Amino acid sequence: MRYLPKSPAERQEMLTAIGAKSIEELFETIPEKYRLHDALKLPGPLSEAEVIDYFKQRAGENSLGYTSFLGAGVYQHLRSVITDTILLRGEFLTSYTPYQAEISQGTLQAIFEFQTLMCQLTGQEVANASMYDGSTATTEAVLMAERLAGRGRVLVARSVHPEYREVLRTYAKNSGLHVEEIGYTKSGTVDAASIKSALRDDVAAVVVQSPNFFGVLETLPGIADAAHGVGALLVVAIAEGVSLGAVKPPAEADIVAMEAQSFGLPPSYGGPYAGVIASRDKFVRQMPGRLAGETTDTEGKRGFVLTLATREQHIRREKATSNICTNQALCALAATVHLTLLGKEGLREMAEQNVSKAQFAIGELEKIPGVKRAFDGPFFNEFTLEFPRSVRMINAELLKEQIAGPLALGTAFPELTKHGLVCVTETTPRTEIERFAAAVKNILSNPL
Amino acid sequence: MEKMNDKIKKATRHTNQNEGLIFEKSSPGKRAFELPPLDVPKVDVAKTLGAQHRLDGVQGFPEVSEIEVIRHFTRLSTWNYAIDLGMYPLGSCTMKYNPRVNEFVARLDGIATEHPYQPQELSQGCLKILQLLEKCLLEITGMDCITLQPAAGAQGELTGLLLIRAYLEKQGNARRKVLIPDSAHGTNPATAVIAGYEVQNIKSESHGQIDVDKLRDLVTEDVAALMITNPSTLGIFEERIPEIAEILHAKGALLYMDGANMNALTGVTRPGDLGVDVMHLNLHKTFSTPHGGGGPGAGPVAIKKFFEPFRPVPILVEREGGKLALEQVRPDSIGKVRAFGGNFGVLVRALAYILAYGPGVRQATEDAVLNANYIRKHLEGVYDLPYSLPSMHEVVFSDAKQKRNGVNTMDIAKRLIDYGFHPYTTAFPLIVPGALMIEPTESESKEECDLFIDAMKSIAEEAAATPELVKTAPHTTRVKRLDEVGAARKPVLRWKPASHSKAAD
Amino acid sequence: MAYPANYRYTKEHEWVNAKDGVATIGITDYAQSELGDVVFVELPEAGKKLETGKSFGTVESVKAVSEIYAPVSGEVLEANPALHDKPETINSDPHGAAWMVKIKLSNLAELEKLMDSGAYETYVAAKGKEASA
Fold this sequence. Notes:
The structure holds three protein chains of three kinds. By secondary structure, chain A is an alpha/beta fold. Chain A folds into two domains: 67-78 and 343-445, Aspartate Aminotransferase, domain 1; 81-338, Type I PLP-dependent aspartate aminotransferase-like (Major domain) (Aspartate Aminotransferase, domain 2), CATH 3.40.640. Chain A is built from 13 helices and 15 strands. Chain A has helices at residues 8-18, 48-59, 81-87, 90-93, 105-122, 134-149, 162-172, 192-198, 220-229, 313-316, 329-366, 391-399, 430-445, and strands spanning 67-68, 126-127, 153-157, 178-182, 203-209, 233-238, 255-259, 275-279, 292-296, 302-306, 372-373, 382-386, 403-404, 407-408, 419-423. In chain B, the strands form three sheets. In chain B, strands 1-7-6-5-4-2-3 form a seven-stranded mixed sheet, with helices on both faces. Chain B has a domain at 104-359: Aspartate Aminotransferase, domain 2 (3-Layer(aba) Sandwich). Chain B is of the alpha/beta class. Chain C has a single domain, classed as CATH 2.40.50.100. Chain C has helices spanning 29-35, 82-85, 89-92, 117-132, and strands at 8-9, 14-19, 22-27, 38-42, 49-50, 55-61, 65-69, 74-79, 101-105. In chain C, strands 1-2-3-9-8-5 form a six-stranded antiparallel sheet. Chain C has a three-stranded antiparallel sheet with strand order 4-6-7. The model of chain C has no long low-confidence stretch (mean pLDDT 91). Chains in contact: A-B, A-C, B-C.
């Protein structure tokens, strides 16, 4: 087998050196009745070409050739080929967690740069080296707020991604955290008045997302003041990081939980992505996840190490800030390379292109009789439309045109049965936007 | 003083490029990437976003050219050790070869490009991959069903404990405690607490195994589960695991297995047959997906049938005509532990690994156990072996002999770096003071194993004759031992423009 | 380092210096040498009630965290502000400048249960022998 560097003669040599007659002897501690005698029934073995062929066939059974208008937490953005050039270097791809700093300086400096970029993006003072994704980063941010405030109630906007809220519920059930949802207004933003009336000194955190799940930008200052007024923390989740190229960062937030998928990570049917938690320096000891810090060696040279490790599971065990061990380091590296390539101007330009594309798209779609925007709040690259009939039915017709239409919101929001979430990015060609609008118009002009 | 000597055969010093922080190379006006021109009318962004507009982009973001980016990260990469360069004898990490074809298939158009919310009619290829992986992992573990959702082992542990809680709650009593051996990985107790359980430590017996008599006393109807690692973190098979399962089951408690050490079991025995009720796998360990400097991983959880109703959603089902679908609603589900379905890209790589081996995957396990025993045989007598039961895929020594000269496991590990290797796992498991935990994996040739043995023997001699050399190692790296105390006392966790030292190399 | 004769000591290596119903508490030289370089200390705020035997704070080195256990019960009057910026004082002057909290004693009788400096020195010497055995 090509992954095993031993010849039969070498195996024999090694057995002899051990003093064993056969390899079976080395498994004698497993009681006989539990030792398998037959090989496992697994497909294969496949040669390299056959492995590739298997996956190429699967790839052909997916959405190649279709244009997608889906966002909702996972975004199609331009990616440079350079990101993979770097990621595929064996010293990055096949290296271990940088616990042994002297031979991991490449990884550690890259993490330090990632942490810096995340702070610059979010307007916060300190950021960690990654969580699993935006949903778990948001959950961990809430648990962090719970520890900091010493309180058990959390107010979460319904305009936060439904899956993020579901993950929070799963974790909260077992930590004694009491999660309450706050509705949204007709502008598509969280109902700030409801937040204010629900706030008491037993609230640990208020959680909002911006741009929110409907694509609308939330207005943070009022919410921040209200939360801080009762000693609660403001947690802001960000699912579409590219927005930060044109939208003000949530500097009022005490903790930011961001999904970094938009920065050079392909959609990959749900993962792997990378979450980040960014916050204030004074909260750093309650922050979960790895942290790379700058220091010097015995000769005064600059170097980097994992630091404040006493927060983590391998030291703190049951009192750790989180159970996280393996994180999303390689994905964070992809984001670091990507953002370094884009740079200040590139990210700004990308963000501005997204705004222009989305404005163009909504313009085209609103021309269709019966189609109108659901919310009047400002948006970045996603917006919610109300249609005259079920979005599911429209999408079934759109499929015939090789279009993956807007996300139907009715399942997650039963009050929004005729609503769909449309996303366009700098990668969506104008011709496709026009074709999409024409197809919708055509579908709607036909009787049911 | 030149710290390389004739005994160091695997590595040599070489000129190595310096590189500062990318922010230190930044200068306004440099671009590394251009976007295609806008094909729709350009909008006045300031007007559109109003008060929310971020004037002038992200302050401090780097502005460099393409070649600077390439050089920056390439230089950084050369400062790392990696599996592609040589052995990582890290116990319990299973640092095996990361097959490159896995990277190729994960990046295919039609695989990397797929959106998790796209219509299921357009995702049959992805769903077939998930279905096949589920089938393979169930065959390997001997369990009844599985969830591929957890993003890593720790998340798998949490999912497993939440499943236990949900199941017991449905029976009327979630119970309060989880038993965890003192030899366990730190994620075990950390996870139990997050799952809302109290941790009760159970001390290992004199051979480092689970103390079955003590277990019998501790298992009451207040105990939800025992979390066991098998082989143990000492690399020793828990022979009495079927008995352990019976003791737990008799009191309605469950057996959770941390699957980190599956590399000793795959194809040879199956946890499901041994009485395990729920377990997680580490795809970034046993199933070759790359560590990438710390992740991503995946931690699927395999379970016995009675846990099925509680699985996280979505659930993969096969419908009429062989069409695959994801069902989002299950009344008793524990919910979701993360958004979307799982680390699909990692799952693809794991499946590619399994397909390459097929039924012959047992050979990998045999080679892993062979390598570990070969190393153990040659180092017995050189290093103290605190637990002498037969080793499987890893072996744990201690620094007791070398300690007499003031040389500890950390020092030996650092000196091993000069010999061209990554250190083994130091100071774990906690039940062995001064532990040296060594797991070569099946990816190491006899030659690499011999080089490692020679290095370890040489260091033992140095510890006896010239201990200072070992205590002040490493000597040949870009940076020497780093001030971790200073880093923790006054943490500097980001670059800042003015205040930042341009120091360094 | 000598153990001050007028202090009292616990098996968990805390020291108590009681005077006029107020006790100053810290950790001993043995404790700091076991911990290694201290990087962080977490102490309670004034007003917090301490219960004998229960943890009231933590001391962190790079690789470990240790709980600090209340040797006697009482109410915290003051936590040492200097330890926040200079946690290393615990290593250099554990019995003096690195005092951790001052508390108002709630039960003077508890002091009798603690070891005097002689008994503590013997206890620590025995631990030393144990470690090198």
